[in-house]
Design goal:
With 942 residues, the protein is an alpha/beta fold. Helices cover 34% and strands 22% of the residues. It is built from 29 helices and 39 strands. The strands form six sheets. An eight-stranded mixed beta sheet has the order 1-2-3-4-5-6-8-7, with helices on both faces. A seven-stranded mixed beta sheet has the order 11-12-10-9-13-14-15, sandwiched between helices. Helix 7 (227-237) links the parallel strand 9 (214-218) and strand 10. Helix 6 (188-210) packs across helix 11, helix 16 (547-559) runs parallel beside helix 17 (581-594) and helix 17 packs across helix 18 (608-615). It is flat, with a radius of gyration of 33 Å. The chain starts with 15 loop residues before the first strand and ends in a 17-residue tail after the last strand.
Length: 942
């Protein structure tokens, strides 16, 4: 580590693992005096051309002086970072602080020269771009605001690194050199560039795991049975399209194959590359396997082995070391304690999981942390009969186990632009990084549905992530704001997934209902009302309805412009004229295909054959020459191919005609309601609104006040005057409340304010509790004020306990509460609800992430269940909701501009027919939590 001449200790917090452009990983860390040999070895592997570009002259080797200079840093004015793989340098970057004359300088000089050198074998992997992000963050931390770089005109790759970064820059040519100068303050473009690179890199890192060209199963037993042998058999039996190898250190030296699969004692013995290693050996042997894989150039790991964080403190440390070990070699891993991965693409056909049967190909991407939940989801999507019946295929499946490295965020990055996936279903036991998850979810949901079941569990064992302090319901509300279809059970997850994968999105909430059962139609009608949909009166076709009757009725409903979706109800019919299941299914499919723009759902009762027929990939109508009489019910074996028959090609027209069938009206309607809400979010997301600018906001004055206040301590709740002053700088006026510790104090306060006034007890147990009698309103004169003061002290005790205040009367209206809080994991959140029991007892609060746009503010006001009280419920006068929305926007600006404002409560806020009055306010300041979404790209730390 650094020695005495260094001015700062080794900055360990600069160390980071990053995903590169090709999906591999590298470690970025500061360069120290201990790196002299690594630096020399690295330089020897750089081409003469790259050395020339770096030093502008032939420079075959580094002198001892060069090595000393490039390894001795003070971590303030001179900083060097290296990107490493396998412990060896693959690239370096350094900056040297300079003054206005270009000579070495110290603070307060705020400019530095920066230079890169990337090993030729690793050029084109995005190493320089990642290093630039990290060295820029280091420079900003050390007070440097601007970088300068001199580049030869022929070094187009490095010029592109700088120009593509998105920073504000200047460029000019002099003395045969291109000089670039750019500010390090992040811009909208630089953040967008960084996040686009993040998506591509993380998506490719997952693609390397899910679409490998070769797979080695490490820990394969010679005899059938056992985890390793089962994995090998599952991969082989699925028809894996790549090269497959069996590996076990216990194999005899003369064993060359295992049931036709090449056998090896070590990954090192395999000729040719190995893209993915599936590891199923005891935990104590995993480190040796990881080393062998890393040295052989394996790109990724799926670790099935257990005995890690789920087993206690020793296992947690073993898991941390596993992640560090894998990343040392540039590998990403799924697991440990994973169930496995599946890719049904015909070009891959990979079943590297413990699922004995390969799911049918389909358009659903499936993620589950829990292996047991993963099994349940695959079973429900694959089987015929029971629950939501019918077959629906998956594109890819990942069960991540302990989720030590690859997480749900990585899979969202992959599925975002995966052409084989139309719908994403996720079971998440926790959300380790809610801020990033909501950002990724918002972008993905704008392109394809994202359905999530969120467990109430904690983060996976061994994860060093900030825990959110937000209630579970608040996190759920924020997910919905980001476009996530949030459901409560895996049954609802599958229900919604079936509909979204098979049918178009509804254009609105208007629902037509038709079928051969009046009672089932009415149940469906009531379920629609309960879910907030707008159903039409059910059309009863009677139990005598034929398949042609269903076809005509459905066609008419779909052609009706007053209908956005259709629910068909069907019960078993008796009689020779009643349609067979296959006949009815074909009638419904043909009608839906004729008018394809609206979703169609079927609610069936004891009609397993109908559900299966609706899910059939080929026409199940009786064929010419069939021996089955018209109208007769067909057995499932007559209607569907066996499960081993290949499904139709993904995205085939037959797939789009499949109609989901549900065994209960409530389940069908709930899935439809989620689709309606999601479709509305998609439409609104195209015009997300804007964050208004207000000319009367004093951002600079607020920043100076906050800095002065925080100088007194790390965290503090502001006094009344300070609170009013700070809020006033953002146009939030709080009505003054004058303390009154005696009746005479109260009278003097009222004389100064002007009658009528309110007298309130502000003791913590009485604050905002008008129901306890601690508030007296509309006191018109001194006599009423003194009487009210005497009543309060007689009921509740001495003035010192009551802390009474006198305040001017506000216009009558609806009492509301507005809050803002900075959560260490989710970020800044603004909340709104009605004051009193609605929010305190029933939890009727709505939430939005900061910054809040004008559209989101309007939505926030209307999102609570008690919102009708603001809009003239039962003949009352509507209140001034535009003024309320402006208050929300101003508060959002305050906490967004000043993250030191970690908590604000405005209560009560009385919203009148004209204007509003903030009667109480509290503000808490503290150093803000670190923003991990604004810094350079990094993988989570364990």
């Amino acid at each position: 580590m650094q020695t005495t001449p260094d001015r700062h200790e080794y900055p360990a917090h600069w160390e980071a693992d990053v995903v590169l452009r090709d999906g591999g990983t590298a470690r970025i860390r500061p360069i120290t005096v201990d790196d002299a040999d690594r630096l020399v070895s690295f330089y020897e592997q750089v081409s003469d051309e790259s050395k020339y570009y770096r030093f502008f002259a032939p420079y075959p080797r580094l002198s001892a002086k060069d090595v000393h200079r490039f390894t001795h840093h003070d971590f303030v004015d001179r900083v060097g970072l290296a990107a490493t793989v396998g412990g060896e340098f693959i690239a370096t970057v350094r900056y040297d602080r300079i003054g206005a004359d270009g000579t070495p300088a110290s603070a307060p000089a705020d400019e530095a020269e920066v230079a890169f050198l990337v090993q030729d074998a690793h050029q084109g992997r995005g190493v320089a771009s990642a290093l630039l992000e990290h060295i820029a963050a280091v420079a900003r931390e050390r007070g440097i605001r601007r970088f300068a770089a001199e580049v030869l005109p022929a070094n187009t790759k490095m010029i592109k690194v700088f120009t593509d970064a998105g920073y504000t820059q200047k460029r000019h040519f002099e003395d045969g050199v291109v000089r670039l100068e750019f500010d390090l303050e992040p811009t909208d473009r630089s953040v967008a560039v960084q996040r686009a690179r993040e998506q591509r890199a993380e998506g490719r890192s997952v693609r390397r795991l899910l679409a490998p060209g070769s797979v080695a199963v490490v820990g394969t037993g010679r005899a059938p049975g056992g985890v390793g042998r089962s994995l090998l058999d599952n991969i082989r039996d699925a028809g894996y399209a790549g090269r497959l190898h069996a590996v076990n250190a216990a194999f005899p030296e003369d064993l060359k194959d295992l049931d036709g699969v090449p056998a090896h004692r070590s990954v090192r013995d395999i000729d040719g590359p190995v893209d993915l290693a599936v590891v199923a050996v005891p935990a104590e042997h995993v480190p040796q396997v990881v080393t062998e894989c890393g040295e052989h150039g394996v790109q990724g790991l799926v670790v099935i082995s257990a005995g890690y964080a789920e087993s206690g403190p020793e296992g947690r440390e073993r898991q941390r070391e596993l992640v560090r070990h894998a990343r040392t070699y540039g590998m990403r891993l799924i697991g440990p304690n994973a169930f496995g991965v599946i890719n049904t693409s015909e070009q891959v056909r990979l079943n590297a999981s413990l699922a004995p049967q390969m799911p049918r190909p389909g358009r659903i991407g499936l993620f589950a942390q829990s292996g047991a939940i993963g099994i349940a989801l695959l079973s429900r999507l694959h089987r015929r009969g029971g629950g939501v019946t019918g077959v629906t295929g998956v594109s890819t499946f990942v069960s991540s186990g302990n989720r030590a490295d690859v997480s749900g965020n990585d899979l969202i990055q992959y599925w975002y632009d995966d052409p084989d996936t139309d719908v994403v279903l996720m079971y998440l036991e926790s959300i380790g990084n809610p801020r990033k998850f909501t950002r990724l979810a918002r972008r993905t949901a704008a392109a394809k549905p994202l359905v999530v079941v969120q467990g109430a569990g904690s983060a996976p064992q061994g994860h060093a992530v900030r825990a959110t302090r937000l209630p579970h319901a608040t996190v759920s509300a924020l997910l919905r704001q980001a476009g996530v279809i949030r459901v409560d059970t895996i049954t609802e997850l599958v229900d919604a997934g079936l509909l979204l994968a098979r049918q178009p999105l509804p254009a609105g909430p208007r629902v037509a209902i038709l079928g051969n059962s009046e009672s089932l139609g009415l149940l469906t009608y009531d379920a629609c009302l309960a879910e907030g949909l707008r159903p039409q009166r059910p059309l009863d076709l009677t139990t005598e309805a034929s398949a042609a009757d269903f076809h005509t009725a459905l066609l008419h409903a779909l052609e009706d412009d007053s209908c956005d979706a259709v629910v068909v109800t069907a019960i078993p019919a008796i009689g020779e004229a009643s349609p067979g299941d296959a006949e009815l299914a074909e009638a419904l499919r043909s009608a839906a295909q004729a008018v394809p723009g609206k979703p169609v759902l079927v609610v069936h009762v004891e009609l397993g054959g109908l559900a299966q027929a609706l899910s059939a990939a080929t026409s199940t109508a009786p064929q010419t020459g069939s021996s089955t009489p018209s109208g007769a019910r067909l057995r499932p074996s007559q209607m569907l191919p066996p499960t081993t028959q290949p499904a139709p090609a993904t995205g085939a027209p037959a797939e789009s005609r499949l109609i989901p069938a549900y065994p209960a009206a409530e389940r069908a309607v709930r899935a439809l309601a989620e689709a309606v809400h999601y479709a509305q979010w998609r439409r609104e997301a195209t015009e997300p609104g804007r964050v208004p600018e207000y000319d009367d906001i004093d951002e600079k004055g607020a920043a100076e006040q906050i800095d002065a206040l925080l100088a007194r301590g790390q965290g503090l709740t502001l006094g009344t005057g300070e609170t009013h002053q700070l809020l006033g700088r953002y146009g939030i006026d709080v009505r003054r409340a004058v303390p009154a510790f005696t009746p005479d104090d109260a009278v003097r306060a009222a004389d100064g304010i002007g009658y009528p006034v309110a007298l309130k007890a502000t003791a913590p147990h009485l604050r905002h509790r008008a129901d306890l009698g601690g508030v007296r309103l509309d006191l018109a004169d001194e006599e009423q004020l003194r009487r009210a003061y005497a009543e309060l002290t007689e009921l509740f005790g001495e003035p010192e306990e009551l802390r009474p205040v006198v305040q001017a009367m506000a216009p009558r209206g609806v009492d509301t509460v507005v809050r803002a809080v900075i959560d260490p994991a989710a970020g800044a959140v603004v909340s709104f609800g009605l004051a009193g029991p609605a929010s305190q007892l029933l939890g009727d609060m709505a939430h939005r992430l900061v910054p809040v746009t004008d559209r989101e503010a309007a939505s926030l006001v209307r999102s609570i269940r008690t919102a009708p009280l603001l809009f003239g419920w039962r003949g009352s006068t509507p209140v001034d909701t535009p003024a309320l929305e402006e208050l929300l926007l101003r508060l959002s600006r305050l906490v967004d501009d000043h993250p030191e404002v970690v908590a604000v409560t405005l209560e009560p806020v009385v919203v009148a027919p004209h204007g509003l009055s903030v009667l109480g306010a509290s503000v808490r300041l503290a150093p803000p939590p670190a923003r991990d979404d604004l810094g350079p790209r990094t993988l989570p730390v364990y």
